[in-house]
Amino acid sequence: MKLGFSTLSLFMNKIQDILEIAYRDNFNIIEILCEGPYMPRLMLKNKEEINFPKIRQIASDYDIEIFLHGPTVDINPASMNQGIREESRKQIMEALEIADLLNGKAVTTHPGVVHRREKRIRDLATNFCIETFIPCQEFAEDLGIALSIENMPKRFSYLGNCPSELNKIANAVGCGITIDWGHANTYENPEEYLKLPNINYFHLNDNNGIKDQHLNVGDGTADFSKDFLKKVDYGIIELNNYENVLLSRDFINKKLIDGY
Ligand SMILES: [Zn+2]
């Protein structure tokens, strides 16, 4: 498994510094969380200060691959409001531009939310979501970057909260999938997610099977057996504290070696 972590755990640090830490601690990937100062639009505006060529150089010297988690806070690709959908599309496109500047491999994003329980409204939201993502997928293909939509926790308002809905969207868009194994653990049969085609990579975190708690790997009820971990080619530990990232890394490496 190639293993990395989300920059959420070192939020607000400079990307160069995070790459140094990743190299020191034997990680092969980082996933940049594109929120706050790392909003793609802001990064494009502050190109000089960010120094994209320098980041690319460090990542390549250290043999660290860069993935991006596109912005998701307060946008909604499935919104009933056309203006919000357009803004969501723009922001995903901008994340793809940043991925291109950083030689990034993949951009993950969320399918969006729907606030009404009627099936016809959910179907409409799903179609809007697909419509929002299709031009993003075309742009991603032009750039040679994988656009990847993530499965969400099992709450009715989230689109992509079960394998069939996530697959329906990814299939219609023609994009790949990011499996958040903690989110999958809130669904009754998490392993159904593993049967989906076009899985790009995994987010690794744990919970009690009910709430999306983002606990350390091994501290909840999600399956982190050797059998599961062997199926993960690319894994991103997604926690908000770097000490816990290291504990999770050690748990995963020990499992993969000893199997217990
Ligand atoms: Zn996510």
From TrEMBL:
Annotated Xylose isomerase-like TIM barrel domain residues: 24-226
GO molecular function: deoxyribonuclease IV (phage-T4-induced) activity
Signal sequence coordinates: none
Domain of life (superkingdom): Archaea
EC number, as in UniProt: 3.1.21.2
SUPFAM superfamilies attached to this UniProt entry: Xylose isomerase-like
Pfam families to which the protein is assigned, alphabetical: AP_endonuc_2
Keyword terms, alphabetized: Endonuclease, Hydrolase, Nuclease
Disulfide bond listed as a keyword: no
Enzyme class: hydrolase
Name this polypeptide is given: Endonuclease 4
